[in-house]
Design brief:
The protein is an alpha/beta fold. Helices cover 36% and strands 15% of the residues. The protein contains 14 helices and 16 strands. The structure holds pyridoxal-5'-phosphate (PLP). Pyridoxal-5'-phosphate (PLP) is lined by residues 137-139, 142, 171-173, 243, 248-249, 277, 279-280, 305-306. Pathway: Cofactor biosynthesis; biotin biosynthesis; 7,8-diaminononanoate from 8-amino-7-oxononanoate (SAM route): step 1/1.
């Protein structure tokens, strides 16, 4: 085996216990980190032991502060260690920490379902979303939605409805079912032989618009191609799954809301279900409580996770229509939806979610976010104007993205071997900001409590990260 071998530190003096250096060594001795080429630790990729969180800050074991500009993988909403959510979880933990959710019930699960259904997107003329099924992470929620859509048609005897349509450049998680409807080659390619075959429709992504084509025209073009897919597979498609308005893992790519409306219309016209994956966009991230609202559209299945608990605990909720639910009511157990996870509807997670929803009310979060988003727009425009490598600055509410290219235009992407994103990551970290670029796309997705001084730090660190990471080009 070629390559470098990590020297065990045993012979040298071990770092003093409790220091950042000691925790790094203990970590690398035993942990296998997610979404990481472990070979890159620690030389190419620093490893930051965190001691605690405080609002938008992460405080390292070395005492350094890092602004969490990615909300810890898009989960955090109101800041780290938010006292009201922490208190709600602690109270629940002293009361009921976990209970089987088959045959048994508990107040937090019921109350959370009621509250989610009350705030879920609606659409005139459609019966509202009516039932909540819990899972314990986003990918599991996606699996639930896919299985429900498929199984519903089986129960009806429409056995030819076996196909899912997903969007190019979409992302729905890492489990095999979720990967099958994802289109990010880095995550998907190696597992392709294991994956169910989905149909992929072109992304409405405004960045992919042809020269002179507007985002609305791009959306119309992509919707027409989706219509073609339906025509080519009559009666075969059970559902379309999409991330409305914002393809997050695909590079924070945004599309016009008219596309989401066309998906709704096409699903209706062809008798297929519409699955909205709002795992990342839900809970105010794109400006409205849910991104579907911007299109005035209600999906048949709505997948929620990430921000659902304010970023405290893993939980997913899949909201379904009454029509879907009724399709499983039968004397036969096989027609029931027998899917389950051990921690389905965990009371601690539900309590955290309820406390997070309370904060939306007491702190007028969506209103405050509007002001914060406006400030982010101003700062982002300045950062964008400061570098010839910024080809696009785009925003959807509390998400801002900078697309970096060699010549600042669409046709000159950087050579991936330059690892622009990794360089930017390290440069920002040096300045106390956790940015985690997606390829050559830098983005801001901070906790909603981010303040003016923190936004300024974010803008300065981003400008520096762009200039330092691109100086090699
Ligand atoms: C993160 C994400 C998922 C997967 O959620 P996990 O909890 O990481 O499994 C699914 N869909 C979207 C849109 C996501 O951003």
């Amino acid at each position: 085996m070629g390559g470098r071998v990590h020297e065990p530190r045993m012979l040298a003096d071990p770092p003093p216990a409790g220091t950042a250096e000691a925790w790094r060594a203990r970590d690398l001795a035993v942990l296998w980190h997610p979404c990481t080429q472990m070979r890159e630790h620690p030389d190419l990729l620093p490893l930051v032991p965190v001691e605690r969180g405080e609002g938008a800050w992460l405080v390292g074991r070395d005492g350094r502060r890092y602004l969490d500009a990615v909300s810890s993988w898009w989960t955090n909403l109101h800041g780290h260690a938010e006292p009201r959510i922490a208190e709600a979880v602690a109270r629940q933990a002293r009361t009921l920490e976990q209970v089987i959710l088959a045959g048994f019930s508990h107040a937090p699960a019921v109350e959370l379902a009621e509250r989610l259904l009350a705030i879920a997107p609606r659409q005139p003329g459609r019966p509202p979303l009516a039932k909540v099924f819990y899972a314990d992470n986003g990918s599991a929620g996606v699996e639930v939605a896919l299985k429900m859509a498929f199984h519903w048609f089986r129960n009806r005897g429409e056995e030819q409805r076996t196909r899912f349509v997903a969007l190019e450049n979409g992302y729905h998680g890492e489990t095999l079912g979720a990967l099958a409807v994802g289109d990010i080659p880095l995550y998907r390619r190696v597992y392709a032989p294991l994956l169910a075959e989905a149909l992929f429709a072109p992304s409405p992504d405004a960045w992919l618009a042809a020269p002179g084509e507007t985002p609305v025209q791009r959306a119309a073009y992509a919707a027409d191609r989706l219509a073609d897919l339906f025509d080519r597979h009559p009666g075969e498609i059970c559902a379309v799954i999409l991330e409305p308005r914002l393809q997050c893992a695909g590079g924070m790519r945004m599309h016009d809301a008219s596309y989401v409306r066309r998906v709704r219309e096409l699903c209706d016209a062809h008798g297929a279900f519409m699955i909205a994956d709002e795992i990342a966009t839900g809970f105010g991230r794109t400006g409205t409580m849910f991104a579907c609202e911007q299109a005035g559209v209600m999906p048949d299945l709505l997948c929620l996770s990430k921000g659902l608990t304010g970023g405290f605990l893993p939980l997913a909720a899949v909201l379904a229509t009454q029509e879907l639910y009724d399709g499983f009511l039968d004397d036969s157990r096989e027609r029931a939806f027998l899917h389950s996870h051990s921690y389905t509807g965990n009371p601690l997670a539900c309590a955290a979610a309820l406390a997070s929803l309370d904060i939306f009310g007491t702190d007028a979060v969506l209103e405050r976010n509007r002001a914060t988003a406006a400030r982010m727009a101003t700062l982002a425009a300045q950062v964008g104007a400061g570098s010839r490598h910024v080809a696009d600055v785009r925003q959807a509410g509390m998400v801002v993205a900078f697309e970096l290219t060699r010549d600042g235009d669409r046709s000159t992407p950087f050579d991936p071997a330059l690892r622009i994103g990794l360089r930017a990551y390290r440069a920002a970290l040096e300045r106390g900001v956790l940015l985690r670029p997606l390829g050559d796309v830098l983005y801001w997705m901070p906790p909603y409590c981010v303040d003016e001084a923190q936004l300024q730090l974010l803008a300065e660190a981003t400008a520096t990260a762009i200039s330092e990471s691109t100086s090699c080009a």
